[in-house]
Structure prediction request, 186 residues.
Amino acid sequence: MSGSASVERDGLILAAQTGDPAAIGRLLAVCQADARRYARKHCQASDVDDAVQESLLVISRKVKGLKAAAAFSSWLFTVIKRECRKLERIMFKTDELDEDKAEHQLLCKTDNDLRIDLAAALESLPAHYLEVVLLRDFEELTIAEIAERLGEQDGAVKSRLHRARELVREYMIGPTAGVDSNRAAR
Prediction:
């Protein structure tokens, strides 16, 4: 961001802190691209829009309490990261302790083992679940684009994608963590 743009943004932040609705609206419009870019790095692809929307809502409600305009960017990124984590916990119905355990399980595997396990997990999915995962996570289509391609409602696609990811997660780190035993059973 150039020096003049930075000064302009700081002025916008200060105006938003006074509660000026127009300034808050402009500030949210200005920071939306940064918020979306950051959310793409920290969220599941299907959660980016929700994380950005929730984050901007939090920003609009709490900008008055921000102590220094210079802290705005780091605060914005902190809010987005928190929303991404919250959405991920909701999606996978896990608490942070489960996430730590799952991360540890995955870190103990080599990259090659992870690739093999992920391929096996995807192969284990029913075709209608595999299709939405491939379209969303590999072809990077939006939910709306997938719904249009499949002739389905957005909600049905989201639901199917959520269930597909749950099944992959269960396969990879589930309580019966049967990845190795599943391979042995083949």
Q: What stands out?
A: The chain has ten helices and no strands.
